[in-house]
Amino acid sequence: MRKFYLLAVSAVLVTATTGAYAAGGEIAVIVKTVNSNYWQNVQKGAKTAVGEAKGYTMTFQGPAAESAIADEVNMVENAVNRKVAGIVLAPSDPDALVPAIKKAWEAHIPVVLIDSSLSDAGKQYYQSFLSTDNEKAGELCAKALIDRVGQNGKIAIMSYVPGAGSEIGRVGGFRKYIEAHSKLQIVGPYYSQSQMATALNQTTDVLSANPDLKGIFGANEPTAVGMGRALKQTGKADKLVAVGFDGNQDLQDFVRSGTIQAIAVQGSYQMGYKGIQTVVNVIEHKPVPKQVDTGVVLVDKQNLDSQDAKNVLY
């Protein structure tokens, strides 16, 4: 009887260790919101990669708004409860998602992060992180603004969700570069919560309160679109320099018309595509890098129709 018990325990241990990840099954892709062309482009990349991976299916989810952090936490926990094969996650908050990711780790479900990282407390619970180097991207935007505005005057920062990993790096990199390489005075940041209408209203107010503004930075897609619309509606489109972030059709049109002078565009399709490829490699016990830079391209009127720009615009 004792011999049978020991064999049974050994079998359980082998299953728990060597069979932790089983090839095939559902991969849950959970992003900050589904109400954005940026995240829909991530979905396109993920869908293509799943189609190339044998034996896998994909579900795609996100809250109604990037600020609905509790909803995203619930989505991750639900994915863990239904025992998905793997999770590709764009965390909307660096701390709030850590307990949910820990549950995935305890359930032997691999997690690959895209776009935004987690705080140090969560680093042991995910296998890889794919994103733009947001600090460098913020620096790129700051340089583009200085090149067009000059060293002196006043500029505004229109940001999105305070505390989001990408926002900390992107706006932080922008601010540090401005402070280190110019004497420009910074107004803001103002937080739109990634709501275009909010960004439009905030930008309108900032333009009204600062008639001497020389430049303005919109730090993500809905914020930059709201900023561009405010510039057009107030007749300020040709009165100051605007730099935006991301590359949907609205932002491309703003660049073409001169409403926005430059946009920094991330490889959102590649995040989805490589996110799926990476989590499949983890499931199938293949080595993956802990961090991958998916790149950024600065697009202006001069290179808007180039192949490099077309590769990232959406």
UniProtKB/TrEMBL annotation:
GO terms for cellular component: cell envelope. It is found in: Cell envelope. Residues 1-22 form the signal peptide. It holds the Pfam family Peripla_BP_4. Residues 27-286 form the Periplasmic binding protein domain. Its main location: other. One of its GO terms (molecular function) is carbohydrate binding. It comes from the Bacteria. Keywords: Plasmid, Signal. Belongs to the bacterial solute-binding protein 2 family. This is LacI family transcriptional regulator. It comes from Paraburkholderia largidicola.
